[in-house]
Amino acid sequence: MAPELATPADIGELAAAHARAWRETYPGIVPDDVLANLNPAERAITWRGVLARGGRIRLVRRDGAVVGFGATGPQREPALMPYPGEFYAIYLLRHAQGQGLGRALMAAMAADLLDQGMAAANLWVLEGNAAATAFYTALGGRPVHSRTFTEGAWRGRDTAFAWDDLSRLLAALPGHAASAGDSPHRPG
User: Fold this and answer.
1) Is residue 185 part of a domain?
2) pTM
3) Nearest by Cα to 103 from 78, 140, 129
4) More exposed terminus of the chain, fewer Cβ within 10 Å: N or C?
5) Which domain, by its residues, includes 158?
């Protein structure tokens, strides 16, 4: 099943999946108290804002439930303006990994960015997320920028991986050509 476009009616379920994906993905990377205090209602505000600003959110469902999602839109980081598009997030719940869903999400999101006239894009990977780094590297992403950020009392670091030509990325994904391993997630 192809990733579907999210609507405002999907935001509550998306926000709950987002919090769950962080709790599954980031133990040992993100402090335990940050993970324990993730609030789906706060995540919902973020995702409503993405839709309101014209961003696109893709959902993957299994048995009617959201098991993964990804979001794209215009670049938010001034240092990365050579990349007009951004993959804001891509997450799969643990039980949905290893089934090609990460590649399907990346394909749908790359197509969304291309449809909006954005031929190059980046995404952010939290330091310590080796599986995501390997996935994006296998898809041709390359590190182009790092930053340190603060979220509450937590200070983290992430790296931007970029694609100069999204049509080449799309050609390496499902329905277009052979592709690399499945996505383990990315922060958002």
Assistant:
1) no
2) 0.90
3) 140
4) N
5) 4-171
